[in-house]
Request: fold
Amino acid sequence: MATGITILDPTNESKPATRHTLSRPASIKGLTIGLLDISKPRGNLFLNRIEELLTERGAKVLRFSKPTFTKPAPVDLRQEIATQCNLVIEALAD
Amino acid sequence: MSSVAPVLPDGFVVIVKRECATCQMVDPVLKDIAGHKTPLTVYTQDDPTFPESVSAIHDSDLAVSWHNNIDTVPTLIKVVNGKEVDRTFGWLASDWQRITDIPQLGADLPAMRPGCGSMSVDPDIVDKLRAKFTDSPVIARTVEFSDAEDEFEAMYARGWTDGFPVIPPTRERVLRMLTGTTRHPQDVVAIAPPDLVELTVEKIAINAVMAGCLPEYMPWVIAALEAVCNDQFNMHGVLATTMPVGPVIICNGPGTRAIGMNSGINAFGQGNRANNTIGRAVQLTIRNVGGGRPGEVDRATHGNPGKISFCFAEDEVGSPFTSLATERGIPMGQNAVTVFAGEGPRCVVDQLARTPEELTNSLVACLQTVHHPKLVIGFDAILTISPDHGRVFAEAGWSREKLIAELTERSMTPGADLVRGAREMAEGIPPHLRDATLPKFRPGGILLTFAGGGAGLFSSIVAGWANGAIGSDPVTRVVGS
Reply:
């Protein structure tokens, strides 16, 4: 389906056409970082090590996991992460 | 994006394609023309090795064909000093002989043979050619979706839809939509509420593409937007109110039939492209250009499904009454739209009335319930009479004026029954009106229309919003070109 097509803006053009990524935080100290395990095998080993490193740097870490890697994260899970975390790292492994 | 129109060389110019049997038939004739003193230039659209009798220039990008408005091949053009002075298309021996001044040209061919469609007007590519070659003043910002994005999902994500998918407004589609109006793309049609931004024909065309309109609907969409974007209709208030109203668009005139609008079976419902997409284009334009979105400026408590689209045509041919547009000052035969801030339609059932008086009483009883049986004068309503109900009035010789006068008279109610607290209902009119006798509607407050399928002893009521200066007044506008 994805065609990369170009269309004409139907709005009054008062909002930017493209969305920009958020700027990088100066420090992660004191921030809450979510680690989302997408439930691929051994993703937990990778994330355990990431958690250690983040905790050493003063971040608070919360762990989440998707029910299955084959489907998008459920809305509830996304909202839970969005409301509880400042940053999120989504991890793949195999 | 545009290109400079190629200048045709002096002499005779012929445009052909191999796929066309008539072009193949005139192939030997071209050699005869080339043998005379006036230079001959042949352009071939498909096969550079065609024609075989003379050499040709391959019009591979169809620029020559497009810029010279070639609809049919073969086309013979006579050019003098860079200007076209004569043209014929297809094979008409007498035309070719006259233009070339070669009396016996093609004497062995049939006198006449129609040509074939030029590749430059092939429906599959004409939009691309228009986008490529037209120096069109379309200036909207472009939005490019990434390869990884589904364009339909991307348009949802940006908040550009009414909840249904929209057609991606590519440049090609928008230029095609703009062929439906003679107005310049940058003409400002109105100031669109609630953001009060200039609404151009181009922005309307973009939203009309998204809504699924055909180009011939454009004049209707433009007229409806002109009608809603003003203080009288008060589109800002119609959005902002907690009441369930949106613009209901009533179309009149022979153009409703020309564009295939439905005024018959299921006239208010689904299934007709013109009815549904004209109304939808108006609402998408208000949403996307005006910025009127539910939960933001649109504060409707419940809303109604007609806020996606509610647009229908009056059945002027079958109606026993003069049309709504005529009633509102538009000459018969002229196309017009009337916009009304209305909620969803409700049905009036009366299968037993055989006299106009009985039927009027039923209509009045139902009209009294508009918004509340004890609230009068403050709200207007559309009353749509069906063919079966219309017959009762037609057979009795009742005109529009007679029916409205009877509806008004039979709705008269003593103020004592309407004031706050009367009939054990707190709602009602202010106590100082206790001694008055009041009709349900203000003068002009019933918009009588005629539409619907041929079977069903039902009529329909669409209740309005607060009327007059504090709310919205219906507005009628002529549909332009």
Q: What stands out?
A: The radius of gyration of chain A is 17 Å. Residues 36 and 64 of chain A are 5 Å apart (CA to CA).
